[in-house]
C-alpha cells in the first residue's frame, strides 16, 4: 500500500502502530470507565486466524431458540450455550429461558423495554407506564422515548437509588407497570432497593408488573460474589436482565447478553419473516456471529475460581481506594456491592491524566468524579493517583 494517497492521508501501517501504541500506553491508568482491559481473548484470536472463520461471513440473523433450520451460516449453537450459562447464573429455569447475545447493554435494555411493554399489553390490553430512576443509565430514558412509552422518571437519593416513596407517589394505579431496576448506576454504582420497591408493588395487586434489570456492569461480577442473590430471579424476581459483554467480561468490542423467560418470549408481537423461516421477536435482523463466540470462549476458558478472584479483587481494591482517600481527607463514597468509587472532583490535570468522567451532585458538594475499579486497575497505579491528589 502507498504510504500516502492523493489527499495526503497517511495510510502506512506505522501510523496504525503508533495509534495502537498510544492506546496501550494508557492502559493501566484508564480508570474512568467500566471497561475491562485485561484481555481474555488471546487464545481465541490464535484459533480464529487458523480457522478460516475470518474469511467467511457468518450472521446470526434470526432467533437462536426457534429450533428451525437456518440457511445463513451462524453461531446459534454457541449463542444458546452462552444464554444458558447466564440463565443459570441468574436463576432462570433451563426449560423456560430465552435470550440472545446483543450488540451492547443498551441493545439489551432496548429488548427488555420492548419485550416488557409488548408482554404487558398482551396480558392486560393496556399500554404500560414505564418507571426508571433519574440516576439510571440514560439509555432507558432514550429508549422509552424511541418506543413512545409513557415514562415516569423517579428522583434518586444521594446514593443513586430510586426513592421508594416517590415511586409509590408516581404509580399509575390503573395501568400496567414496566419498572426498570438499575443494578449499579453508571456514576455512583447505586443499586435500586428491589425489596422495598417490590413491597410497594405488592400493595397494588391489580397492577400487572414487568421488571427489567439493567445490570450492565454489576450483572457480570455479582454472581461470583456473596451478593449473587441480588441478580437471582428466584430470590429477587425480575422478568429480564441485560448486561454488557465489554465491561466485566472484557470483549474487545461492544457486546452484551439479554435473558428473559420463554413465557415472555411467547407473548410478543410476532412478525413472520418467511426467508428467515421464523417469527422474529427481536429488533435487529443481522446480528454478530462473532461476539457470541467470543463470549462463549471467555466463559469456557475462565474458571469459576478465576471469575471469583477477579470479582473479589475489584471489590477489595475499591474498598482500599475509599479508605486511602479518606486517610488524606478527600471526600469519597462507595455504595454496597459496588466497584465504583466516587469522590470530590480532582483538579483538571489529574482528571485528564486518569481519564476521569465528571458528574455533579449539589447534595455532595457539587463536582464529582469516579474511578471504576476494573480488573486492570491495580493498587500501584491508584497509589500514583492518590499521590497526585496529595
Ligand atoms: C448502568 C448502565 N446501563 C447501561 C449501560 C449501557 O451499556 P452499553 O455501553 O453496553 O450500551 C451502561 C454503560 O455504561 C451502564 O453503566
Notes on the protein architecture:
- By secondary structure, the protein is α/β, with parallel strands linked by helices.
- The protein has two domains: 54-300, Aspartate Aminotransferase, domain 2 (3-Layer(aba) Sandwich); 304-389, Aspartate Aminotransferase, domain 1 (Alpha-Beta Complex), CATH 3.90.1150.10.
- Helices cover 37% and strands 15% of the residues.
- The chain has 13 helices and 13 strands.
- It has helices at 13-25, 42-51, 76-89, 105-124, 138-146, 164-170, 194-202, 218-221, 262-266, 290-300, 304-327, 348-353, 379-389, and strands spanning 98-102, 129-133, 150-154, 177-182, 209-214, 240-244, 256-260, 272-273, 278-279, 332-334, 340-344, 358-361, 366-372.
- The strands form three sheets. A seven-stranded mixed β-sheet has the order 1-7-6-5-4-2-3, sandwiched between helices. It has a four-stranded antiparallel β-sheet with strand order 10-11-13-12. Strands 8-9 form a two-stranded antiparallel ribbon.
- α8 links the parallel β5 and β6 (240-244).
- α4 crosses α5 and α11 (304-327) runs parallel beside α13.
- The protein is globular, with a radius of gyration of 22 Å.
- It starts with 12 loop residues before the first helix and ends with a helix.
- The mean pLDDT is 94.
- Bound molecules: pyridoxal-5'-phosphate.
- Pyridoxal-5'-phosphate is lined by residues 34, 104-106, 137, 139, 182, 184-186, 214, 216-217, 244, 254, 256.
Amino acid at each position: 500500500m502507498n504510504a500516502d494517497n492523493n489527499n495526503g492521508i497517511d495510510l502506512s501501517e506505522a501510523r496504525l502502530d503508533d495509534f495502537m501504541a498510544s492506546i496501550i500506553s494508557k492502559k493501566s491508568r484508564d480508570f474512568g470507565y467500566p471497561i475491562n482491559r485485561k484481555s481474555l481473548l488471546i487464545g481465541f484470536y490464535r484459533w480464529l486466524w487458523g480457522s478460516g472463520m475470518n474469511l467467511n461471513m457468518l450472521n446470526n440473523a434470526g432467533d437462536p431458540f426457534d429450533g428451525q433450520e437456518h440457511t445463513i451460516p451462524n453461531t446459534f449453537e454457541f449463542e444458546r450455550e452462552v444464554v444458558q450459562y447466564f440463565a443459570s447464573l441468574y436463576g432462570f429455569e433451563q426449560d423456560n429461558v430465552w435470550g440472545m447475545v446483543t450488540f451492547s447493554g443498551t441493545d439489551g435494555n432496548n429488548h427488555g423495554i420492548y419485550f416488557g411493554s409488548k408482554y404487558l399489553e398482551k396480558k392486560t390490553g393496556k399500554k404500560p407506564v414505564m418507571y426508571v430512576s433519574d440516576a439510571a443509565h440514560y439509555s432507558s430514558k432514550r429508549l422509552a422515548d424511541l418506543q413512545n412509552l409513557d415514562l415516569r422518571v423517579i428522583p434518586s437519593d444521594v446514593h443513586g437509588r430510586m426513592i421508594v416513596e416517590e415511586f409509590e407517589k408516581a404509580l399509575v394505579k390503573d395501568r400496567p407497570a414496566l419498572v426498570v431496576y438499575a443494578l449499579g448506576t453508571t456514576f455512583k454504582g447505586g443499586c435500586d432497593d428491589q425489596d422495598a420497591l417490590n413491597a410497594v408493588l405488592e400493595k397494588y395487586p391489580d397492577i400487572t408488573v414487568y421488571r427489567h434489570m439493567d445490570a450492565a456492569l454489576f450483572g457480570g461480577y455479582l454472581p461470583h460474589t456473596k451478593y449473587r442473590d441480588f441478580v437471582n430471579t428466584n430470590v429477587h424476581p425480575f422478568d429480564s436482565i441485560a448486561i454488557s459483554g465489554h465491561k466485566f467480561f472484557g470483549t474487545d468490542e461492544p457486546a452484551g447478553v439479554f435473558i428473559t423467560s420463554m413465557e415472555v418470549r411467547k407473548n410478543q408481537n410476532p412478525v413472520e419473516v418467511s426467508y428467515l423461516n421464523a417469527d422474529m421477536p427481536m429488533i435487529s435482523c443481522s446480528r454478530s456471529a462473532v461476539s457470541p463466540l467470543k463470549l462463549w470462549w471467555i466463559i469456557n476458558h475462565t474458571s469459576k475460581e478465576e471469575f471469583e478472584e477477579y470479582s473479589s479483587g475489584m471489590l477489595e481494591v475499591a474498598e482500599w481506594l475509599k479508605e486511602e482517600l479518606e486517610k488524606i481527607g478527600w471526600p469519597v463514597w462507595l455504595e454496597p456491592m459496588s466497584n465504583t468509587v466516587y469522590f470530590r472532583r480532582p483538579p483538571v490535570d489529574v482528571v485528564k491524566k486518569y481519564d476521569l468522567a465528571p458528574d455533579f451532585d449539589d447534595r455532595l458538594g457539587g463536582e464529582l468524579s469516579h474511578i471504576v475499579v476494573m480488573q486492570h486497575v491495580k493498587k500501584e497505579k491508584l497509589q500514583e493517583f492518590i499521590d497526585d491528589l496529595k
